[in-house]
Design goal:
- By secondary structure, this protein is of the alpha+beta class.
- It has 2 domains: 30 residues; 61 residues, Beta Barrel (OB fold (Dihydrolipoamide Acetyltransferase, E2P)), CATH 2.40.50.140.
- It has a 6-stranded mixed beta sheet with strand order 1-5-6-4-3-2.
- A hairpin with a 4-residue loop joins strand 2 and strand 3.
- Helix 1 packs across helix 2.
- It is extended.
- The N and C termini lie far apart (66 Å).
- It comes from Leuconostoc pseudomesenteroides.
Length: 117
């Protein structure tokens, strides 16, 4: 007997700890996303295959001196990539950045902000 495919509704009732709910809501807000959109992105990231660039570069910190600001390129491991910065309008030589995502030849970066103690 052949298995029948069922179409899912896309709705998942989910019960989580209220403190976790608060943390997730705050993280979503920081990224300018709805909680639903933020959770969907987390789930998608968890199941999609990682690219070579994701495995090699995500999480690495790069210096502002690695940027070619005129051409909007950044040099990582000897290769120039296009970039997007998720929390700043432009790259700066005097800042450091963490690589959040690699999609083909485009890196998504976040400027690291020094914490005051």
């Amino acid at each position: 007997m052949a298995k029948e495919k069922t179409t899912k509704s896309g709705n998942i009732p989910l019960r989580i700890d209220p403190e976790l709910h608060q943390v997730l809501a705050e993280k979503a807000k920081l990224e300018g996303r709805s909680l639903n959109n933020y959770l969907t992105k987390i789930l998608e990231d968890g199941v999609k295959p990682k690219s070579f660039e994701d495995r090699q570069f995500v999480g690495h910190v790069i210096s502002g001196h690695d940027f070619d600001l005129d051409n909007r390129l950044v040099k990582v491991s000897g290769i120039y990539y296009r970039y997007l910065i998720d929390n700043a309008s432009a790259a700066r030589y005097d800042a450091n950045y963490v690589i959040l995502e690699a999609n083909g030849n485009i890196l998504t970066l976040r400027e690291l902000v020094a914490e005051l103690h």
